[in-house]
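Journal club prep — side note

Before the paper discussion, L.F. wants everyone to see what a predicted structure for a comparable chain looks like in token form. Sequence:
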Amino acid sequence: MVVELKMSEVSGGLSALSQTQLFLPRGIHLSRWENLRGRLQNKERWCCHAKNHNKPSTFTSRFSTAVPLYESPGASFDQYVEDKRRVLKAMFPDGIQLNESEKRIEMPPVNFLFLEMTLVVDVKLTCKSSGEDYPFGVPHAIPKLLELDITKWELQGLHRNYQPPHFALGFKGAIYPDRRGKQSRLRNQTEIQINFVASPAFAIAPHHVLESVAESVCKTMMENMKVRENGRLLADYEKFKREKNKVKNQR
């Protein structure tokens, strides 16, 4: 692909590049780059041969965890997940409640090159039971599970010139108690997938740089969800058990 830019469009960009030395060709020092910039300014157009970024790129991250689960009589994990509003609040305390089963949350910002972007997503929580429409890999013998899905997403913080012409986010999570064996465990299976086409504004950026950005977004979401789905959820379940036991003792 050949990208042609008028000098009026790139003169400011060349100045920024000379200061930060981003995309500076190997072996060319700053003084030589300044001379090159001067020669380019005497031409009407600057032609840059760059890799074609119109091809979609897809990145997928998966994780599966199993942590010990200690339930109490009269305060099972199945009872706890019936209150979807409470579960959402425990996992996403800083989000905006959209309805009983959905919340809008802001993921940690991602920095790349000279830009910063934030991914805002709507997370939907569904409680399923009796093996009906369970995700792949979840035994139908499990009486109840929580399913997390992202229904809407938005990239914020990017100027419209840098917005990707195509960006798709896929997210599926399943959380359920596995009581098989001597020790009950809370299992978590999550998959995150990002599919995007880079903006033409990044035509001069090496493709591996753009790939690393997408991988960083996947990793950030994955680590964030691990904390929310395991740590915060279990902590609130412990609180739920104490509340139930307190009511029981008062009778």
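L.F.'s comment for the group: The mean pLDDT is 75. Keep this in mind when we get to the figures.
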